[in-house]
Amino acid sequence: MKKYPFLDLATVNAPYMDAMREAADRVISSGRYIGGPEVTALEDWLCAYIGTRYAVGVSTGLDALRLILEGYKALGRLSDGDEVIVPGNTYVASVLAVSQAGMRPVLVDPDNATMNLSGEGVSKALTEKTKAVVPVHLYGRVAWDDELSALMRDCGLIAVEDAAQAIGAKGVGRVGNAAAISFYPTKNLGALGDGGAVVTDDRELADAVRALANYGSDRRYHNIYKGFNCRLDPLQAALIMAKSCDLDSANVRRRERARLYTRLIDNSLIKTPTVPEDEQSHVWHQYVVRVGDGRRDEFRNYLLDNGVETDIHYAVPPHRQPCYKEFSEVFLPVTERMVGEIVSLPISDCTSLADIAEICDIINRFR
Ligand SMILES: *Cc1c(COP(=O)(O)O)cnc(C)c1O
Questions:
Q1: β-bridge partners, 179
Q2: Cβ-count burial of 178 within 10 angstroms (0-12 exposed, 13-18 middle, 19+ buried)?
């Protein structure tokens, strides 16, 4: 039987193999293994690509988020115990960053159609302790609109974008005060290991993040903060740069695949994701359909029996994780229903359009 893998990273990276080998050779023979020109080159590319004044390479997407919050604390603009609004249906990292920075995550249901934070959801959760919001551009779709933007401005809130899944989507990295990028291997621009970045137009924040990520040091042997070691590995920076020129076309290929799924899936039991008016504001990190009537697991097993691998992003929401017992009383009806209905279908560039058409045929035969 033919197999349709969910994601095969060796195949995804195969087109860049020569460029990556060359990049790795360059780093190995350079003698420079921390910081240096490879990291700077990636930071310069990020500024130009995203359109921010500053970019700081860091170790992971989680650390990028945490360092933004720690950076605002170091500048006196956020404090321990501040409330930070985070969508309830995100990956646990978005919430962990807030906890680790000593602040209080306040989990909010997303809008049922976009599966992203809405101005309405955020405004209901506001208290006088709310100081920041983390819009998560989930599945690659921009979580930002005029209502959210006006709310942030009117209430003087700091917007920290979790852009881990959405590099390349229109406005991502620029709509908030600062944004966290992840180069985790499965992301739209994936390294061959961990990597992340902070992008912002705020010079003070960029300087604070850069120092905090390097033991709190602003110059050699001079520590202005009790910092961390969260630097970006130059080898990963060089490997990411070897792929970066193809990011836009990779995102175009994802859009093409998403469009085909939406056009071909024709089964009343399967709901395709809503599509934003402006196509450019979605980069389809995941293509997530919904299956109601408690039949999601049956649908997944049916697909697997027909060779189609799927995944669930995310099977257990942060507030139901054992590490977050403090949220055991929290009830998020939209998130909880969604978690039982969602299925992520294969959407990487190595899922050919012909394979997607075949997957849709299989989906349409589910009864
Ligand atoms: C992947 C991801 C992160 C964390 O990024 P890492 O680089 O794995 O630390 C944070 N938030 C979201 C939404 C993610 O998908």
A1: 161, 199
A2: buried
Ligand 1 centre from 82 Cα, in Å?
Answer: 22
Of 96, 137, 162, best ligand 1 pocket probe by most atoms within 8 Å of the beta carbon: 162
State pLDDT tens for residues 287-335: 999 999 999 999 999 999 999 999 999 999 999 999 999 999 999 999 9
Q: What confidence tier does 349 reach under pLDDT thresholds 50, 70, 90?
A: confident
User: Residues lining ligand 1, CB < 6 A?
Assistant: 60-62, 90-91, 93-94, 136, 162, 164-165, 182, 184, 194, 196
Q: Residue 202's closest CA among 166, 173, 231? A: 173
| Tokens coding 254 | 């994802």
pLDDT attached to residue 171: 97
HSE, CB side, 13 Å, CA atoms: give it for residue 163: 30
pTM, to two decimals: 0.98
Task: Select from 271, 362, 268, 347 the least CA-distant residue to 310.
Answer: 347
8 Å CB contact between 178 and 161: yes
Q: Calculate how far, in angstroms, residue 94's C-alpha sits from the geometric centre of ligand 1.
A: 7
